[in-house]
Structure formats: structure tokens, C-alpha cells
């Protein structure tokens, strides 16, 4: 395992794109790139919690903005421009995003204010919404206790969603118009709490787990294929187009301390693996 960067904040949303690792530092309000020489560059400054992003087929970065309650694109001159309104989806904002090869953007959100911590009693179900190019967002799946990372298979026909609170990866069939059907438990994960995920060229999934401080590779059906042990919470992971897994992690204080904690010691690590990435998030 190689440590590529350290001393960061709450790091999330890693993407392998154009030969570099891209990721966000939520507490700094930044999206950064990391090149092969270990150089960090800030490419977006936008105060938002969460601060998740992906790439459109034309190469533009698209991010989920909490304050704007919208998807914003980073244009060639570096400005952020409104792309889609998300205000009607939830009063609590949205979380993660994945964009497939057709430009269909899937955005999810929980049914509570995560910065205030989980609600008492039964947790309100979250959702997955679809944003087609030039169209309004529409909810295409619900009753996900806490939707987190998402990935689309290489053939564009399956969406996998991490449900952190129900300890499972949920699979959906993707129709030609981007709508979802055929909901199923893609993998049961025991007591694990999947956060960010990615898929590989053999159809397996990697998921990062914050409380259990590891990343795990599972086959559809739940068989564990590999485990990478971490020394801090694993928030998300992504695969390169060569067999390398990039993991972003930090020291997690619990949701109740999200807005006051400072000792994150966010880190980016690289781990050699057996199979390269496939599908989306963007590569």
C-alpha cells in the first residue's frame, strides 16, 4: 500500500479520469487532482457538504451542490454553471452521483439531515433520482435507508447502490430511458456499512467501509473475494484503468461531530489489485 497524500480533511468521491485521480475534500470545499508524481492541484473551490462529483460524456465535471440544491458543471474557464435543479427532490439535499456513458446522471439522497446525525427511531428512506440531459430530475427508486456510493456496469444495464444502513449493495436493471426496475439485493454484506463503491472488469464490486476501516471486493451474491485493511475509515474507492485501487480515508468522529471535528488526517492510498476498473464512475 502506497500513501500518496495525507493531512487532508474529509476526503471523498474519488474518480480516475484522464490518467489522474480526482477526489474531493469536503471540509476544505475543494475538488483536487493527484498526478503520478504526487502533486496535488485544486481544480474546483465550492463550499458544499457533501461535495460529490462525476464527469459528463463531454468531459465536463458535474458536482452536487448543497447550497445551490442543483447540479453544477465546471466549464472550460473554470466557472461553475447550473446544469439541473435538484430542489424538488428533498429538503435535506443530495449526496452521491454517478453519470453513465449516455449522460444519464443518477443522484441520491437520504431522508434526513446527515450533518445533524441519524434521526431517532426508524430512519426515513432515501431515494435515487435520474437527471437526463436537458430534463428535470425524477425519482426512480426509493426506500433505501441511506443511499451512498453508486456505480453503473460496463454494459450500462445495471446500477448498483450502496445502502450503508441496511448493509447491502442494491442492484437495479437500467432501461433504455434510464429508468430502473428489477430491484434486488446485489450483495448482502453482514455487518459492514458500504460507503463509496466501484466495479471492476470481472463484474465484482469494491466498497469502502468507515466504521470497519477496510475496503472489500465482493462478487454479485455476496462472496468476499479480497479485503484491504486500513488504519482509518474508508470513505470511498475507485479503480484505475490498470489494476490499482485508490482509497480515500479519514478519521471519522461520528455524524454528530461532522461540523466541528478538525483532526481528519485525510489520506489517499494506492493498492495493487488483480483486476482493473470498468463501467462508471468515469474513467
UniProtKB/TrEMBL annotation:
* Assigned keywords, A-Z: Hydrolase
Q: Tell me which SUPFAM superfamilies the record gives.
A: Calcium-dependent phosphotriesterase
Gene3D superfamilies, per the entry: TolB, C-terminal domain
Q: Where is the SMP-30/Gluconolactonase/LRE-like region domain?
A: 12-249
InterPro entries tied to this protein: 6-blade_b-propeller_TolB-like, SGL, SMP-30/CGR1_Lactonase
Give the protein family.
Belongs to the SMP-30/CGR1 family.
- Return the protein name: SMP-30/gluconolactonase/LRE family protein
Q: Which organism is it from?
A: Nocardioides panacihumi
Starting at the broadest rank, the lineage of the source organism is: Bacteria, Bacillati, Actinomycetota, Actinomycetes, Propionibacteriales
